[in-house]
């Protein structure tokens, strides 16, 4: 991550800020329940609340109440959050390509990604918590 930090720092983001924004951006309707966001990031509920509070103050995310469960709320990516990612992501992907993926052949890259997914399933089993559930509700 030290190799990737300068791009994030230049954009005013910490690693966890960036991870939070990316997870929201790739989620259906660019939102996740706070509990699912905590599970995906590996943060405690209070930890994710602090991150979302900070990102909300910067206008990068907002909170929305859950219409079916008064106890739950969603973190939602804002237009400003999307714009910040549009600046950061291309540079971040270039860093990843320069340091990791660009060094591998196509078959090596496929094996590497498959291995990472297998490891993620054990190390972070909640890495996609809530994403499929929301997608299923949208399609019904």
TrEMBL record:
Q: Which Gene3D superfamilies match?
A: Winged helix-like DNA-binding domain superfamily/Winged helix DNA-binding domain (1.10.10.10)
Which one GO biological process term can you cite for this protein? response to stress
Signal peptide from the UniProt entry: none
Q: Fetch the Pfam families from UniProt.
A: MarR_2
Recorded GO molecular functions are: DNA-binding transcription factor activity
Q: Which residues form a coiled coil?
A: none
- All copies of the HTH marR-type domain together span 1-121
The name under which this protein is listed is: MarR family transcriptional regulator
């Amino acid at each position: 991550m030290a190799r990737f930090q300068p791009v994030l720092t230049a954009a005013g983001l910490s690693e966890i800020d960036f991870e939070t924004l990316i997870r929201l951006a790739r989620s259906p309707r660019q939102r996740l329940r706070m509990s699912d966001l905590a599970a995906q990031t590996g943060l405690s509920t209070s930890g994710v609340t602090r991150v979302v509070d900070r990102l909300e103050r910067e206008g990068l995310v907002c909170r929305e109440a859950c219409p079916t469960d008064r106890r739950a709320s969603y973190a939602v990516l804002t237009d400003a959050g999307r714009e910040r990612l549009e600046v950061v992501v291309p540079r971040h992907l270039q860093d990843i390509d320069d340091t990791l993926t660009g060094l591998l052949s196509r078959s090596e890259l496929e094996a590497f990604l498959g291995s990472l997914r297998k490891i993620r399933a054990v190390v972070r089993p909640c890495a996609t918590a809530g994403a499929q559930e929301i997608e299923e509700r949208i399609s019904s």
